Amino acid sequence: MQKGRKRPLPKGQAQTDRNKAYTVTEPAELLPFLLKHVTGAGRNVIKNILAHGQVAVNGKSTTAYNYQLQPGQTVTVSKERPKEKLPFEGLSILFEDEHLIVIRKDSGLLSVASDTGKDNEVTAYRQLMAHVRLDDPGNRIFIVHRLDRDTSGVMLFAKSEAVQQQLQNNWQDAVRERSYVALVEGMVKKEQGSVKSWLKESKTLKMYSSSRPEDGLLAVTHYKVLRAGKDFSLLELHLETGRKNQIRVHMEDIGHPIAGDKKYGARTRPIGRLGLHARVLAFIHPVTGKLVRFETEIPKLFLKPFQGQLQN
């Protein structure tokens, strides 16, 4: 054997080494780190492993060659390609760990099945249940809060009943920020304000503000004007309470119903959907105790009525 030439690895060694965990001891990019530590695998093999989602950093899969590693992290390389994930309809996952799933729901998708819904009705709940059962048929998810069918935005699900109960029982304290954007009818002249009322539900299942103080559930909504035109305004809304249809009722109360919300007084449907989007949700993680925050973009459709107009 020539001097300096590496001896060939025993058959199967590379495959075995690619099923190991490696501890990061100094800052590095992921691809060079793998090339250094995964023995018996060339550059193309490593890139192929990365591309197929077989590399995870602290348990979270990544395909980024330039992922910045920090000391103390663990890089796991699996010899098995991950199972194919189910395609989602009307939702995308923003975050997932062993306790929670945070999604962005599209307008038109039900959060959970309606009482009169069909057994095969597509919902966020059913899709996510099928998603977690790919790993274990015994896995389940639990809904923490709901968004109306025609409202889009950030939604939170728990992976155990214990986590669900912890979140729901401490919702007011756990949630640090919960904001929406709403396209409403008319020009809102007051730049910011608050709406406070006591909400009740009619026999036709429509929520309304009682004319008597403390007659119902207290609801408080704060708003700020982002854009205003002659016919429509775009508002940022922060919830102090989280009552059923709270924003929709309060916008009707101030004379500026949400565009497309015929149930609560709207006369127009300029964007072909309800003009309400849950943009931000920030809360204390029930297990780690850390503050986590999820923010989504304002739907482009919400800006359509202001095109060609001067901003206020």
How would you portray this structure in words?
- The chain is α+β, with helices and mostly antiparallel strands.
- The chain has 3 domains: 61 residues, Structural Genomics Hypothetical 15.5 Kd Protein In mrcA-pckA Intergenic Region, Chain A; 86 residues, 2-Layer Sandwich (Pseudouridine synthase); 138 residues, 2-Layer Sandwich (Pseudouridine synthase).
- The chain contains 7 helices and 17 strands.
- The N terminus is likely disordered.
What is the class of the largest domain in the CATH system? Alpha Beta
What CATH architecture label of the largest domain applies?
A: 2-Layer Sandwich
DSSP strand tally? 17
Strand content: 25-35%
Q: Which percent range fits the helix content? A: 10-25%
> Which superfamily, in CATH terms, is the homologous superfamily of the largest domain?
Pseudouridine synthase
What is the makeup of the main sheet? 11 strands, mixed
Anisotropy-based shape = elongated
Structural class: alpha+beta
Question: Total domains, how many?
Answer: 3
CATH topology of the largest domain: Pseudouridine synthase
Mean pLDDT: 89
Rounded to the nearest angstrom, the radius of gyration is: 25 Å
Helix/strand order, N-terminal first? HEEHHEEEEEEHEEHHEEEEEHEE
Low-confidence stretches: 1-18
Number of helices: 7
Q: Distance between the terminal alpha carbons, to the nearest Å?
A: 80 Å
